[in-house]
Design brief:
The chain has about 500 residues and is of the alpha+beta class. The chain has helices at about 1-80, 85-105, 110-140, 145-155, 155-295, 300-340, 350-360, 365-370, 385-400, 460-470, 500-504, and strands spanning about 345-350, 370-375, 380-385, 410-420, 420-430, 475-480, 485-490. Helix 1 (about 1-80) runs parallel beside helix 3 (about 110-140) and helix 3 (about 110-140) runs antiparallel to helix 5. The radius of gyration is 56 Å and the shape is rod-shaped. The two termini are about 30 Å apart.
Length: about 500
């Protein structure tokens, strides 16, 4: 099952990386397309502006040419009829012509060819205007016949032809520029479509590749799901079998611990009994040494006196201390063994009340050590074994009072929270703390951490962990040296009796 889960996790990781890669490629393509489209759009706008400029120049040239033609037509009408309306029209066209020429000069200021052409056009127009002004002045003086003779002899037709040719040359130059600018604009449009086509192709490739990747991952996922389904069909049987094996192994370990502890106690009792007899026998021997020293001191040596008065009592004391320690260890092992064989009896528990009882049971110890214990309320509901929970809390609270930081008033806080179907009970203190390297070893049997200045054999936390396991939970610690410690007991909110125990 772990192999299938590993393959699923690996497949998900690889699929995520590939899919993210394709998404990044797609977004990069879209970004590049957007930038290219913006650049091409600017180019198109640039070329469109110049195309419009060309049209404006053509309009300005045509307007100036039209004004010249209209001015000539009005002048001839005035010379032939003498009507003032033609004279007024002639003056209007003559007045508008300089502005039209200035407009052409303004629009073609960036083109040296057109600047030169407009200069020549101005010269021809100025000569034509001067000739027209002379003939018109004669007509204004009432000399109509003389004006007609002067009109017949003037060269305005030739000058008009030159002006028309000059305007045509300027229009031809603008049409040439228009063709170039139209070509550049068409090239920009083609470039835009090419960019769109390339971007569409890249996006299509990314989409197809992503689709193929998703399909492949889906097939792998379906295959893994089938394998997982087959495994799950036999998982319950495997779990039941392994749980049974573990239960039998645990029972064997508990029986072994009980037998070993029981068998060790027999020789230990003998050693303790003989030690007591030896201690009793040492007293008459010491009295005898005192009598001999008083009545016949020459019979005693210094070694005899030291052996009777110091070495023998000291050896007996060491033996007695060691046997007492051995007795405590054996009793602890027996308690652990008996606790492992005790039937768990779940019932609704008032955690706050249990915490209050645990504190009250060692109130004299708490007061002697100058500590303050706070039980935070409310606490969540819990269905578990009352005796086991009481023993766990009692051990944790007593430990917290043992390892306070010298010079700092002890503060112990007991709290509990609900996390889905679990209840987490925390016992926090501000004591001396635990080295992070010892966070796991302190739960081992006969293992302790830090300075060993408090009584104990290193059994309490091992007992707590064993009880937590039996209740279907775990226990851990968070601590740093000098910063206190927080023990967290994680239990199921409702303890479920194992099936084999329920069947029994």
């Amino acid at each position: 099952m772990l192999g299938i889960a590993g393959r699923l996790a690996s497949g998900r990781g690889k699929f995520s990386r590939v899919l993210v890669g394709f998404m990044v490629a797609g977004f990069a393509c879209l970004l590049a397309t957007g930038l290219a489209a913006g650049w091409v759009t600017q180019k198109i706008q640039y070329h469109s502006g110049w195309v419009n400029h060309t049209y404006q120049v053509e309009i300005a040239i045509n307007r100036a040419s039209l004004l010249i033609e209209q001015e000539e037509t009005s002048r001839r009408g005035y010379l032939l009829t003498g009507l003032p309306v033609y004279r007024e029209a002639y003056d209007d066209y003559a007045a508008a012509l300089p502005g039209a020429l200035d407009r052409i000069a303004e629009l073609t200021a960036d083109n040296p060819v057109q600047r030169a052409a407009i200069g020549r056009l101005r010269q021809h127009v100025a000569a034509l205007e001067a000739q027209r002004a002379r003939v018109t002045a004669i007509m204004d003086n009432g000399q109509r016949a003389a004006a007609l003779i002067a009109f017949a002899n003037e060269t305005s037709i030739r000058r008009m032809r030159v002006i028309r040719d000059q305007a045509s040359d300027m229009l031809a130059e603008e049409r040439r520029l228009l063709a170039e600018r139209d070509a550049e604009q068409a090239a920009s449009v083609r470039a835009f479509y090419v960019i769109l086509a390339v971007a569409a192709g890249i996006l299509l490739v990314v989409a197809i590749t992503s689709l193929l990747t998703i399909l492949r991952y889906t097939r792998d996922l379906a295959s893994s799901r089938d394998s997982l389904r087959q495994l799950n069909e036999t998982l319950e049987d495997q779990v039941t079998e392994r749980t049974s094996d573990l239960s039998r192994a645990n029972d064997e370990i508990q029986r072994f611990a009980y037998i070993v502890s029981h068998d060790l106690r027999s020789p230990l009792v003998n050693v303790m009994g003989f030690t007591a007899e030896l201690s009793t026998a040492a007293k008459p021997l010491t009295d005898l040494i005192d009598v001999v020293e008083e009545k016949a001191p020459e019979l005693l040596t210094q070694e005899m006196k030291l052996a009777a008065r110091e070495d023998l009592p000291e050896a007996i004391g060491f033996i007695r201390t060691s046997t007492q320690k051995m007795d405590r260890l054996i009793n602890a092992i027996l308690r652990l063994s008996r606790e492992g064989r005790r039937v768990i009896a779940p019932e609704p528990i008032d955690l706050a009340a249990i915490a209050d009882n645990a504190v009250a049971a060692i109130r004299h110890v708490i007061d002697d050590r100058g500590a303050t214990v706070t039980v935070e309320r409310p606490m969540p509901d819990l269905v578990s074994d009352r005796l086991a929970v009481e023993q766990i809390l009692s051990n944790l609270i007593e430990n917290a009072t043992k390892y306070l930081q010298p010079g700092r008033p002890g503060q112990i806080r007991i709290s509990a929270t609900r996390a889905r179907d679990r209840v987490i009970i925390a016992v926090a203190d501000n004591g001396r703390g635990i080295d992070p390297r010892d966070h796991q070893r302190i739960f081992d049997l006969f293992r302790r951490s830090g300075t060993q200045d408090q009584p104990g054999e290193g059994i309490g936390l091992a007992h707590v962990r064993a009880l937590a396991y039996r209740l279907g939970g775990t226990i851990d610690v968070a601590s740093r040296l000098g910063e206190g410690a927080t023990f967290r007991l994680n239990l199921p909110a409702t303890y479920q009796i194992p099936q084999e125990n329920a069947a029994a």
